[in-house]
Amino acid sequence: MTKETDAKGVDRRSFFRGLSGAAAAGAVAGATLGGAPAQASENKDERAKARYRETDHVKTFYRTNRY
């Protein structure tokens, strides 16, 4: 088995290893420089309301899939 290298002499595995390390460093830097924490888009009343509604579309889905 031979290692395939490009013109600069970097083999495939070390290239991807370096790429994943750079991505991890970028994620850490992005998390620390983010600034203010994200705010919830819903208020307390919207979070408490029921979200499930059995509409005609849902009833048709249940009927066609035999639920």
Describe the structure.
By secondary structure, this protein is mainly α. It is 52% helix and 0% strand. It has helices at 12-32, 44-48, 56-64.
Draw up the topology in text:
Layout (H helix, E strand, L loop, with lengths): L11 H21 L11 H5 L7 H9 L3
Question: What profile does the largest beta sheet have?
Answer: none
Low-confidence stretches: none
In helices, the fraction of residues equals 40-55%
* Structural class estimated from helices and strands: mainly alpha
Overall average residue pLDDT: 75
Order of helices and strands: HHH
From the alpha carbons, calculate the radius of gyration and give it in angstroms.
25 Å
Q: Give the count of helical stretches.
A: 3
Can you count the beta strands?
0
Distance between the termini: 54 Å
What is the beta-strand fraction? under 5%
- Give the overall silhouette: flat
Short description:
The chain is mainly α. It has helices at 12-32, 44-48, 56-64.
What keyword list fits this structure?
single chain, flat, about 0% strand, mainly alpha, about 70 residues
